[in-house]
TrEMBL record:
This is BTB domain-containing protein. Residues 206-219 have a biased composition (Acidic residues). It comes from Botryosphaeria parva (strain UCR-NP2) (Grapevine canker fungus). Residues 198-230 are annotated as: Disordered. It comes from the Eukaryota.
Length: 230
């Protein structure tokens, strides 16, 4: 199966059985002889996805992003590019209707947060703008804030991490979760919800078949002649 990603003029050639095993989007087009063009996807992110597929879903591919690390730029500002990339990869998984990949991204984020010293607030705007309300990644992000946040997370912030720039809906969700968690979040004997059961943030892999059968116009797909047939 030949796939053009974004504006990249060169297609990626992917094994159809491999790529269709977990992606509802590719399953829908597996009988097509034409090449697929996915103009709205980022080639950089899709290459990571393809690497994960061909590495037999190895955790190493996502772990090497080092999402827990804070990187300091020459101007003194800091960033967590690995964490942002994991969010973008989850969004890619949404576009490809690949719950297996999304679950792997969630696991990678949970593992990274075990080592993280801060959770950037600016990711909230991206997550709430691009992911649906029922998204498992969105719920996980809220739970991490509700369980771990302290006053240090509001000090010496980059301008983009100003709490006032985060969506009001995000702060409302965090407040609700704090109330739901109650005093348990202050009990050192109680483990965080993602440690107790990370599976609650996973999605059913049966959704692949559901997506294959449903009509979905949210993802732009263009067909063109397959260069492999020329």
């Amino acid at each position: 199966m030949s796939v053009y990603i974004g504006s990249d003029p060169d297609p990626l050639t992917l094994h159809k059985d491999l790529i269709c095993a977990t992606s509802g989007l590719f399953r829908r087009y597996r009988q097509e002889r034409a090449a697929l063009t996915l103009p709205n996807l980022d080639p950089r992110l899709f290459e990571l996805y393809a690497e994960w597929q061909y590495a037999n879903h190895s955790k190493t591919v996502l772990k090497q992003l080092k999402a827990h690390e804070v990187v300091r730029a020459a101007d003194g500002t800091t960033d967590t590019p690995g964490a942002a990339t994991l969010h973008e990869l989850f969004e890619l998984g949404e576009s490809l209707a690949d719950p297996t990949f999304k679950n792997a991204v969630v696991d990678a984020y949970i593992d990274a947060m075990a080592k993280a010293t801060e959770i950037p607030t600016h990711l909230a705007a991206l997550i709430y703008a691009r992911l649906p309300s029922g998204s498992s990644f969105r719920r996980l992000y809220v739970d991490i804030w509700a369980w771990n946040a302290d006053d240090m997370w509001f000090e010496d912030l980059e301008p983009r991490d100003d709490p006032l720039t985060a969506p009001g809906e995000f702060w409302l969700d965090v407040t609700k979760r704090i109330v739901e968690m109650g005093k348990s979040r202050y009990d050192s004997r109680t483990r965080p919800p993602w440690v107790v059961d990370r599976g609650q943030y996973h999605e059913s892999e049966e959704q692949v078949e559901e997506y294959e059968e449903e009509e979905d116009e949210s993802m732009e797909v263009v067909m063109k002649p397959d260069p492999g047939d020329e």
